[in-house]
Specification:
- The protein is an alpha/beta fold.
- It folds into 2 domains: 165 residues, NIF3 (NGG1p interacting factor 3)-like (Udp-n-acetylmuramoylalanyl-d-glutamate--2,6- Diaminopimelate Ligase, Chain: A, domain 1), CATH 3.40.1390.30; 119 residues, Udp-n-acetylmuramoylalanyl-d-glutamate--2,6- Diaminopimelate Ligase, Chain: A, domain 1, CATH 3.40.1390.30.
- Helices cover 38% and strands 16% of the residues.
- The protein has 12 helices and 11 strands.
- The chain has a 6-stranded mixed β-sheet. Strands 1-4-3-2-11 form a 5-stranded mixed β-sheet, sandwiched between helices.
- Strand 2, helix 4 and strand 3 form a beta-alpha-beta unit.
- Helix 7 crosses helix 12.
- The longest helix is centred in the N-terminal third of the chain and has 14 residues.
Length: 304
């Protein structure tokens, strides 16, 4: 996560211009980054990666999970798919679209670092790796860089989909929203409808009045969630994922002592998938000569 704090006025300006006119996504790159911008034509995977990284404060990271998971940086790109995960279904869709470059936000091979040594004899891993190789598809994980973009493109995507940009006070290091007071059940209904979620898990009274919201996308971890809750003192914290024995137990004890903080768990995918749309917008601005498509991977889990 970035360390910069954004005022509400600055954040609303950044998000509204990006959503309405693509201004943030189309502003000129600084320094020699402009040399990467060229008219419609051929791009390699590396050129597109470099173009994105040049748009991120600090440039190349010394340590990152944002590496190629298959294919080659020298591949000439025929089409791009943006997705939350490079699932087998997403790979097949890329094949159908004639796209040979997938930019995914999360791991491809079932662990944060995409370490595959322990999967060498696993038939699911082998099937997926072979499918990518057979069709010469390159997969790049864009996780650390997209979150370091100013403003964070995942945050922008989610707030835009929720239509909550106007409520944002800060977006880093925590997303803090101040909205007109409404019942917890109304906030839950809104997030479910806007993010296409079937059900959420929660702790709290459905009629509780909420106006101060702490939004923690993805899976930041229990300690970071608990420290942020203690600092921000929100009426409700809305997050992507939790360890059941960490944040939920903290919220349960907090309520037992008299605190009013509630918890809503959206699911990791639902809480970040909208970032793929803003990456798609970025690609259409920066590499207009290449067809780019957002592919929804959907939730891996269903409810009974």
């Amino acid at each position: 996560m970035k360390s910069e704090n954004f005022t509400r006025r600055k954040f609303i300006y950044n998000v509204s211009t990006a959503v309405g006119a693509g201004a943030v996504l189309s502003m000129p790159l600084i320094g020699n980054a402009a040399t990467f911008i060229k008219p419609a034509g051929n791009y390699t995977v590396k050129q597109i990666m470099d173009l994105f990284i040049k748009d991120v404060p600090g440039g190349v990271l010394a340590s990152t999970v944002d590496t190629l998971k298959s294919g080659s940086a020298d591949t000439v790109v025929t089409g791009i798919v943006t997705a939350m995960f490079a699932t087998i279904a997403v790979i097949r869709k890329a094949i159908d679209l004639g796209a040979n470059f997938i930019i995914a936000h999360e791991p491809t091979f079932y662990n944060h670092a995409d370490d595959t040594d322990w999967l060498k004899n696993d038939d699911v891993y082998q099937y997926k790796a072979d499918l990518l190789k057979q069709h010469n598809i390159t997969v790049w994980r864009n996780h650390d860089y997209i979150h370091r973009h100013v403003p964070d493109l995942v945050t922008m995507g989610v707030l835009a989909q929720l239509d909550w940009q106007k409520y944002a006070d800060h977006i880093a290091p925590h997303i803090i929203l101040t909205m007109p007071a409404t019942a917890l059940k109304n906030i839950v209904s809104h997030t479910k409808a806007k993010l296409n979620i079937d059900k959420v898990r929660y702790i709290g009274h459905p009629e509780q009045s909420c106006s101060r919201v702490l939004l923690m996308l993805g899976a930041p971890g229990g300690r970071r969630q608990i420290e942020a809750i203690a600092k921000v003192k929100p009426d409700v914290v809305i997050c992507g994922e939790v360890q059941e024995w960490e944040t939920p137990e903290y919220i349960r004890d907090a309520q037992a002592k008299g605190d009013k903080t509630s918890l809503v768990v959206l699911g990791h995918i639902a809480s970040e998938e909208a970032g793929s749309q803003f990456l798609l917008n970025w690609l259409k601005e920066k590499v207009p000569g290449i067809k780019a498509t957002r592919v929804y991977c959907g939730n891996s889990l269903s409810f009974m």
